[in-house]
Amino acid sequence: MAAAAVAPSFRRDALLRANELAAPGGGGAADDEDYWREVQRAFDLDRTIINLNNGGVSPSPTHVLDAMVRDLRFSNVAPVHHMWDVLEPRIEGVRRELAREFGCDPEELAITRNASESMETLILGLDLTRGDEVIVTTQNYPRMLTAWEQRSRREGIVVKPITFEVPPRSMAYVVDRFRQAITPRTRVIEVPHITNLTGQIMPVRELVQLGRAQNIEVLVDGAHSFAHFPFARDALGCDWFGTSLHKWLLAPIGTGFLYVRREKIPSLWPLMAAPKTMDANVRKYEEIGTHPAANHNAIAVALAFHRAIGAERKASRLRFLRDRWAKRLTNASDRCRVLTPLGDPRQSCGIGLLHVEGVEVPKMVAHLWDRHRIITTPIVHQEFSGLRITPNVYTSPEEVDVFGDSVLAALKTGLS
Ligand SMILES: Cc1ncc(COP(=O)(O)O)c(C=O)c1O
Fold first, then answer.
1. Which end of the chain has less neighbouring CB within 10 Å, N or C?
2. How far apart are the CA of 31 and the centre of ligand 1, in A?
3. Which neighbouring-strand residues pair with 236?
């Protein structure tokens, strides 16, 4: 009991201290371990496990989880009143703050449960006719490719997947791959802002410009970009954007948002039907039936945590941790290659894909877990393969070093 009562204030102290340290002149550089230790203390983690898959879904800081649990308990007292009348209206504050962060009007942003819901709203909600063409890449997220494929089976639209090399020779090369696939029938381009496979940041701004000049809608899958590295809507210029918030924002599981430029809202159908009176109202994408208010309201708490660290500071820490394992391994062994463009911050951030020559990816992933309790993500794509490594703000340099040691030891002695 005593420990439970003490723990939250201990964490609050840690947060205050992290904030203090982040003040001008107070440190907080990418390698300032005094600062990052305070951030680490905001999480309740099992430090016997080294979790290098923060791309799938991330733990929330403890106080974010506490806020959600508090509101779930409050809801449960009398959900019809506490949840619907008291907590649900607070979604408007979440909308306002997310919109401020993304750089759009709150009337252009819908709160969803994840990037899948946001992107499927876009993919299934645009009117297209038989023979209309959609350009995707073979590195788009599989669920989105499945959604397009279903539309193709159901309605006869034509899906044209392009490939691009990893790492690409240049951003211009990537744009050219799209340009070459455009025909007079192209209506849509769907592209990840940053791929979940190698962590390649795509030239979204250039693709939006390319599309706009030819009346092609460019749908941006930002599942991994929002709150991972700093950018705002106007830097992309996009009309359509979907993201999850349980990845890089560290919000509770089951949170995301959908952005639709205001004048486009009437042209995009919601996934679940909404009345005609809501045609131009972004809240039509939130007509999903009964759902917890606690989860989406705690987004505001996660956003405050994100702002306390600062988007730039967070991105530089993530790059610092990534470089720590990536540079070490590529310098130590000719068999290690990183398929993520490390040298260009416009093209990568915290995610990196490690390719180890002569090693079967699933076996290496299993070895790291079985022997060292390190979580990595196996990527076995038809064009390349490797271990996807994604540290987070709570990851210590020592944990990254244990990963590096374990890979090098495995290369020396073999997998067991
Ligand atoms: C590029 C991309 N899009 C969409 C998703 C789906 O995210 P969620 O499962 O949160 O809907 C992911 C998940 O990893 C992803 O990497």
1. N
2. 29
3. none
Q: What would the pLDDT profile of 52-84 be if each residue is shown by its tens digit?
A: 999 999 999 999 999 999 999 999 999 999 999
pTM of the model: 0.95
Residue 186 Cα to ligand 1 midpoint, Å, equals 25
Closest CA to 397 of 57, 41, 30, 42: 30
| Ligand 1 atom closest to the CA of 196, numbered from 1 | 16
Q: Where is the domain boundary, 242, 270, 303? A: 303
Same domain, 346 and 236: no
Q: Name the residue range of residue 277's domain.
A: 73-303
What confidence score (pLDDT) does residue 6 get? Answer: 40
Same-domain pairing of 274 and 362:
no
Torsion of CA 174, 176, 182, 186, to 10 degrees: 40
- How many A from CA of 115 to the centre of ligand 1? 6
Say how far apart CA 18 and CA 202 lie, in whole Å.
32
Q: Whose CA is nearest to atom 10 of ligand 1?
A: 114
How many domains in the chain? 2
Element (H or E) spanning 111, and its range?
A: strand 109-112
Three-point CA angle 242, 247, 252, nearest 5°: 100
Whether the pLDDT of residue 101 is over 90: the answer is: yes
From 123, 221, 228, give the residue whose CB has the most ligand 1 atoms within 8 Å, as the site to mutate.
221
| pLDDT per residue as tens digits for the range 271-320 | 999 999 999 999 999 999 999 999 999 999 999 999 999 999 999 999 99
Domain end call among 264, 285, 303: 303
Tell me how far the alpha carbon of residue 132 lies from the centroid of ligand 1, in angstroms. Answer: 26
